[in-house]
Amino acid sequence: MRLRTKGRRNLQRRFPKLNTTATADISFMLLIFFLLTTSFDSEKGLQRLLPPKEDATEDVRSVDVAKENVITLGVTADNRFTVNDTIYKKEEIISQLIPFIKKKKSRHIIEVVVDSKSDYDTYFQMQNIIVSTYKQLRHEEAKRVYGKPYGRCDETQRETIRQTFPQRISERFE
Which is more confident, 66 or 75? Predict the structure, then answer.
């Protein structure tokens, strides 16, 4: 027995068509929306005042510094922190730096000596300790002198405090 299929062979199946003309427009609108609303964090890096570029014709002059105005922070090959060749924990370094900088004010120099075999992360931990020490000192000074935190001082007040506690850092890698 045979079924009648005479008219169905030539009949093509129809699929519904999807209108995609607006897809590109919507995609670009979403892309623009996300580009405008997304904030990108930029790396800030370390704030250091580098010495000016020296000409070859310029005389090199050495400056004598009183040894009592220098505190030496170190990072050893086994990633330990030292202050004047005495090993300290990371948390104890700030308590060594603050009295020294308060006593010497703008005459102090922090000498950072880093062993070349130490980890890069340990070096940056030392830098973070120094930065947080200056933040704490400047905050305390602003509270004492102006009665407000360092971040709320105007630019001339900040400059006065920065002159009281300038960042005077010397780095050496061994």
Answer: 75
Is residue 163 within 8 Å of residue 127, measured between CB atoms?
Answer: no
**Run of H or E residues at 121:** helix 120-146
**Residue 89, SS3 per DSSP:** coil
**b/e string for 8-25 if b means 16 or more Cβ within 10 A?**
eeeeeeeeeeeeeeeeee
Task: Give the CA-trace dihedral at 150, 162, 43, 130, to 10 degrees.
Answer: -100
Give the burial class of 167: count Cβ atoms within 10 A of its Cβ; 0-12 exposed, 13-18 middle, 19 or more buried.
Answer: middle
| pLDDT tens figures, 5-27 | 555 555 566 777 777 777 888 88
Supply 166's token pair. Answer: 């300038």
Look-up of token digits 């129809």: 14
Amino acid at 129: I
Question: What distance in Å separates the CA atoms of residue 4 and residue 57, rounded to the nearest whole number?
Answer: 106
Residue 87 forms beta bridges with which residues?
82
Spatial separation of the C-alpha atoms in residues 72 and 75, rounded to whole Å: 10
| CA max distance for the chain | 116
What letter represents residue 138's amino acid?
Answer: R
d(Cα 66, Cα 110) in Å, to the nearest integer? 12
